[in-house]
Amino acid sequence: MNELLIAQLGKDALRTALMVAGPALAVSLVVGLVVSIFQVVTSLQDQTIAFVPKVIAVMAVVAISFPWMTAVMVHFTTRMFTEFNAVVRQLS
Questions:
Q1: What percentage of residues in the chain have a pLDDT greater than 70?
Q2: pLDDT, tens digit (0-9, with 9 covering 90-100), for 16-55
Q3: How far apart, in whole angstroms, are the C-alpha atoms of residue 64 and residue 62?
Q4: CB count, 10 Å around CB of 55?
Q5: Any residues with CB less than 8 A from the CB of 2 and at least 6 apart, and which?
Q6: How far, in Å, CA of 11 to CA of 60, rounded?
Q7: Handedness of CA 80, 5, 12, 10 (dihedral sign)
Q8: Structure confidence at residue 31 (pLDDT)
Q9: Long-range contacts of 64-70 (CB under 8 A, 24+ apart)
Q10: What is the rounded CA–CA span in Å between residue 14 and residue 9?
């Protein structure tokens, strides 16, 4: 039972991390792809052309989705603290 409990906690932590980081990573991927295609078409090879739009897009997505991200993290943290006693009892 101990191994299953630890695996479930790890799975929940990874799922929460992917849910929180997913939107920013997806937007960064799409913006990077669009900028790379633009650089190939125009033969521009400056690195800041790829960096600045990605930073702006990721900052915008994080600013827009921050309340949702916070709610997901608070829910996970609250669940971990409320189930702490049961987890400790099962592990010992």
A1: 99
A2: 999 999 999 999 999 999 999 998 898 888 877 888 999 9
A3: 5
A4: 12
A5: 90, 91
A6: 29
A7: positive
A8: 95
A9: 65/23, 65/24, 69/20
A10: 9
